[in-house]
Design a protein that fits this description.
With 248 residues, the chain is an all-alpha fold. The protein folds into two domains: 118 residues; 114 residues, no CATH class. Helices cover 67% and strands 0% of the residues. The chain is built from nine helices and no strands. Helix 6 runs antiparallel to helix 7 and helix 8 runs antiparallel to helix 9. The longest helix has 37 residues. It starts with a helix and ends in a 10-residue tail after the last helix. About 2% of the residues have low confidence.
Length: 248
């Protein structure tokens, strides 16, 4: 579903199309000296604005597809990490290695390894302060890739980790790591493309002097001077409203 701001951008372009249609219908009398206000230039600007709107739609679709694919790819990660902990715990790997795997799994699951003890009510009443704790969730996709990469590295270095289950083998884990990195990078690139498309749209519609909005204002002033402030022609274009929207 399009956001209200994106709907607003489309409405501005549709209103500009109404403006161009009115000016075209005026025929030969509509003959401004300023090149940007001539019908050919207005039609070119309209086409560019529509192209800018479409570019954002295409980029947004690509972004949505990339984020959906990433979400699907990452969904099995937490259950898989739990299986890995159980699998290595059942081997002859050292207790230290098992502890390392459990520590990384806690990060993947978003758990704190050891709870922070807070002052009790009596201590608080005596003036003690709550212990400030940094977030340990680290659940961003970048962090999750980093945690999982550490998990794979630890397992790769452990000669006693030799599971028979296909999905737990180091080769399969590395294949998943490559896929997760690719999916995350695709979202990063899609985010950049969408941001750039929105910048280009804002420039096409709202740039000072050359943007669609300022040109539309120039057209209104020309029609006002050509036909008069009380003319039906100026009433046509004067009622057209444009709203500057620089958001998404």
């Amino acid at each position: 579903m399009a956001s209200n701001s994106e709907t607003g951008h489309s409405k501005n372009v549709a209103t500009f199309e109404d403006l161009v249609s009115f000016c075209t219908a005026y025929g030969p009398p509509y003959n401004p000296s300023k090149p940007a206000l001539k019908l050919a230039a207005l039609n070119t600007q309209l086409a560019a604005a529509n192209a800018a709107l479409q570019a954002v739609k295409v980029a947004k679709t690509a972004y949505d597809n990339a984020t959906n694919a990433r979400e699907i790819a990452f969904k099995p990660l937490r259950p898989l990490a739990t299986k890995i902990v159980n699998a290595i715990a059942a081997t002859e790997a050292t207790a230290q290695t098992v502890a390392d795997v459990k520590s990384v799994n806690n990060k993947i699951q978003g758990k704190r390894v050891k709870a922070i003890e807070q002052p009790d009510a009596e201590a608080l009443a005596a003036g003690a302060e709550l212990v400030k704790t940094a977030s340990v969730a680290q659940q961003s996709y970048n962090k999750m890739v980093d945690h999982y990469a550490q998990l794979v590295a630890t397992l790769t270095a452990e000669p006693k980790y030799l599971p028979n289950e296909a999905d737990l083998k180091v080769a399969a884990l590395n294949t998943l790591l490559t896929d997760l990195r690719a999916k995350n990078t695709a979202v990063i690139n899609a985010t950049t493309a969408l941001s750039n498309a929105r910048i280009a749209r804002s420039k096409a519609l709202y740039a000072e002097i050359t943007g669609l909005m300022d040109v539309a204002q120039g057209v209104k002033l020309y029609v006002k001077s050509l036909f008069g402030a009380t003319s039906p022609q100026y009433r046509q274009v004067g009622k057209l409203r444009f709203t500057k929207r620089l958001g998404d």
